[in-house]
Amino acid sequence: MNKEEILQASRKENKNKDIxxxxxxxxxQRIGGLIAISIAFALLLLERVILDIGTNYGYFCIxxxxxxxxxxxxxxxxxxxxxxxxxxxxxxxGIYSAVMVVxxxxx
Length: 107
Hints:
Layout: H1 3-13, H2 19-51, H3 57-78, H4 81-106
Helix pairs in contact: 2-3, 3-4
């Protein structure tokens, strides 16, 4: 494969986007996710401390689902024991919180 074929394959793979632009998009998505998780966590704590209504499992479910998604993706791509273990733990917590949300709806 010569230089031109490699460049052509790279352009096709990246859909003619600049590498810098791809990095900016990637970092922006990570920052947006962290902000969303932080806000959900802050609301969870505020409801718990200020309103004293107990744990809102809806916020907890959002936080756990975001973490599970991240670790599942990393586990699939990297196939390392640490990522697989964390993916399983976050997923279990996400499922637990989803069940608690459904149970709170039922009463």
